[in-house]
Amino acid sequence: MSVSVCAAPIDSLDTKDYKYLFSRIRQSKDNTVLQKVYLESFLKKAKAGQDWELLVTAYKNYVDCTDSELKIMYTDSMLIVANRSGSDKLIGSAYLSRGIVFYGLKRHEQALENYLAADPFIERSNDEYLKYKLKYNIAHEKYYLKKNEEAIQLFTSCLEYFKENNARAYLNTLHSLGLCYNSEGNYGKSEAMVALGYREANRLDNHDMDCYFLHLDGQNQYCKRNYALAIQNLKKSIPAIEGQNDYANVAVADFYIAKSYWAMKRYREAVPYLKRVAKVFDEREYIRPDLRENFELLIRFYKKENQPKEVLFYVDRLLKADSILISTHDHLYDTIHKHYDTRTLVQEKQNMEQLLANERSMKGVLKISLTVLSVVVALLLAWLINRRRQDRIFRKLLSENKKEAPKVVRGVPRELDIAPDTVTKIVRLLEKWEHNMKFLERDITLPALAVYLETNVRYVSDIILFYRHKKFSEYINDLKVDYIIEQLKTDRHKRLFTHDALAEEAGFSTTQRFVTAFKARTKLSPNYFSAKIRKELEEKEK
Questions:
Q1: d(C-alpha 19, C-alpha 238), whole Å
Q2: Which of 84, 222, 394, 505 is the most buried (most CB within 10 A)?
């Protein structure tokens, strides 16, 4: 006799408490029909009780139990309820949850927007767990943007709190630090984080992160050229990661397996894994800067195999990947090492299309080729226009001296309400301070400069605005950037400095602040300026 197992009607769950319903939601994750009943019952009970926190939790349950874009809809509901409650804690938590959802969907700009929106509410809430959870998630965005130093600082600040209060978050943080050290090229420290992660997992009897530590160890082994061990560890890590529907890290594992085979010259064994990465890109549009090489390797393989149709297919994919990287990684894109720039790709595409045209003269093929080529030409024109703009700015910077025409700044006083003798004294001391390059010190503040100039902060601020036509922070940053530009012009050794070294040289507290200040001052990225000046000036010096 067969037994029919049916979900209990919602009404029969009215007497159950929230703890019971919450545990059933978690336990029924493999039975979506039954889980939906418990979700609806929890939500119905929270609405009836008019409890804002439980109502936010009810929608959070839906977020945790739903896939893809529907998650965003439920975080919107969380936010609506939280705003009605007026609770800083609930509003901050809702924004944070929304950011985490966007991060999971690889929509990083929207993730960061929500994290920043959460910050003031969480700060006012005095909820320590939310504060560290927000720090942790912002750190992941910084890691994603290759701001490794800042990410490491944030992750490290979370470590002790999570160690005492949340075992899984603690293990996640150890893993995240390992990722940052790997990204920096410090594989020894990354391996140390992996080893510590395993030890702590055993101590805590929590092995949820073991597959990710193995995954990271595989990447470290690849970077250390232990290719066989890299392949072994990465392959072992995939089933558990697939079980968590983490397609992004599966793609990363496939990529480094393929790279390991490629480095061992086992090209045909690499190709299936490269194609798996390409499939994730087709289905999810998931791409990050290091995965770009995936398409370059496929193009290289099929060129050698003399298969023009396959070459053309992956050239198209590479162009699409570049388009996504440009729109979402403009701050990173100029640091990506590209073996196929846009012009080369255009030529490659034309060559392959010509081969195909010789083999097949179908009108459909020609029409598709022309459409694709028109897109490529549009991309090329945009690239050329931007490059010409950058060249004009670069040549202006190269030819001008340190002095600049004063610019109009809102708020500049027509007259200084300061005694003339005092103004003369302050300006003289300020010029001495500039001449002695005191601006290269780290963490310069307006009060500290006022002490040096033997006056008060208002006088300093007004005089800088009046005579330098800049507000204090812009004035300091521009002096530092101008110093670096002059050093790059005159000192060939400093043209080989990394951004970290240049930031240190100029007294910036972080590399990112240096990059931001450089772009604000010059409208160019430091990468572009450094590469251009090395090329042009070193040609002249030959």
A1: 34
A2: 222
Using CA atoms, how far apart are residues 318 and 311, in angstroms rounded to an integer? 10
Give the separation between CA 50 and CA 281, rounded to whole angstroms. Answer: 44
CATH number of 434-541: 1.10.10.60
Amino acid present at 418: I
pTM over 0.85: no
Inform me whether the pLDDT recorded for 77 exceeds 70: yes
Are 132 and 158 within 8 A, CB to CB? yes
Q: How far apart are CA 395 and CA 384, in angstroms?
A: 16
pLDDT tens digits for range 147-178: 888 899 999 999 999 999 999 999 999 999 99
> In the structure encoding, which two tokens stand for residue 494, read together?
């400093």
The angle formed by the CA atoms of residues 118, 122 and 127, to the nearest 5 degrees, is 150
From residue 542, alpha-carbon distances to 459, 530, 537, 538 in Å are 50, 18, 9, 6
pLDDT digits (tens, 9 = 90+) for 16-61: 777 888 888 888 877 888 888 888 888 888 888 888 888 888 888 8
* Both structure tokens of 196: 């510590």
CA–CA separation, 343 and 292 (whole Å): 17
Band of residue 73 on the pLDDT scale cut at 50, 70, 90: confident
Please enumerate in sequence order all residues whose Cβ is within 8 A of that of 506, keeping only pairs 6 or more positions apart, or say none. 440, 480, 481, 483, 484, 514
User: Which residue's structure tokens are 């000036």?
Assistant: 537
CB within 8 Å of 332: residues ≥ 6 apart: 145, 146, 289, 325
Tell which residue, 362, 356, 322, has the closest CA to residue 342. Answer: 322
Distance, CA of 437 to CA of 48 (rounded, Å) = 67
What Rg value do the Cα atoms of the chain yield, rounded?
29
Contact indicator for 208, 172 with CB cutoff of 8 Å: no
- For the chain, the structural domain boundaries read 434-541
Look at residue 65 and tell me whether its pLDDT is greater than 60: yes
* DSSP code for 205: T
DSSP 119-133: HHHHHHHT-HHHHHH
Q: How far apart are CA 490 and CA 267, in angstroms?
A: 46
Q: Closest by alpha carbon to 51, among 59, 377, 196?
A: 59
The pLDDT-based confidence of 348 (bands split at 50, 70, 90) is low
Neighbour tally for 148: CB within 10 Å: 20
CA-closest candidate to residue 472, choices 423, 430, 422, 425: 430
Distance CA 96, CA 492 (A): 47
**Which span out of 12-21, 53-62, 234-243 was modeled with the highest average pLDDT?**
234-243
Q: How confident is the model at residue 223 (pLDDT cuts 50, 70, 90)?
A: very high
Q: CA nearest 402: which of 491, 463, 513, 487?
A: 487
Q: Where are the alpha helices (DSSP H) in 243-292?
A: 247-263, 267-284
Do 131 and 123 form a contact (C-beta atoms < 8 A)? yes
186 CB neighbour count, 10 Å cutoff: 15
Burial class (CB in 10 A: 0-12, 13-18, 19+), 229: middle
